[in-house]
Design goal:
The chain is built from 3 helices and 5 strands. By secondary structure, it is α+β, with helices and mostly antiparallel strands. The chain has one domain: Ribosomal Protein S8, Chain: A, domain 1 (2-Layer Sandwich). The longest helix is centred in the middle third of the chain and has 24 residues. The N and C termini lie close together (7 Å).
């Protein structure tokens, strides 16, 4: 049996395309639903067809690395990496203040089924 792991990422609209491309480069489906709120955009990231726990954990580690690279790049450009990770049953994680390890742990917090 395979499952999907999904979460949402809320961020300013000017960062949406850059981050969507980064997430997709990790082999993860990134979708941007149309929302009424124009101050923040939401990306829904779905890691689909998870067949094994090991493969899903590997995908989450790669995603954390991509998100942390994006945050580092933003800071080097003198920008704050605004954004929040959200998933049902978990408190949101503010990407502007979280450490790299906190990003990884947040993504791994809901273990894949299998």
């Amino acid at each position: 049996m395979t499952d999907d792991l999904s979460f949402t990422l809320d961020l300013p609209p000017e960062e949406r395309e850059t981050l969507m491309a980064l997430i997709r480069s990790a082999g993860i489906d990134a979708q941007a639903p149309k929302l009424r709120d124009t101050d923040w955009q939401t990306i829904i990231a779905i890691i689909g067809g998870i067949g094994t726990v090991a493969s899903s954990i590997s995908a989450l580690i790669e995603l954390a690395d991509k998100l942390n690279t994006w945050r580092t790049t933003m800071r080097r450009q003198g920008k704050t990496p605004h954004g929040r990770l959200r998933r049902s049953g978990q408190p949101p994680l503010d990407l502007a203040t979280a450490t790299d390890e906190e990003v990884l742990q947040w993504l791994l917090r809901t273990p894949p089924k299998g």
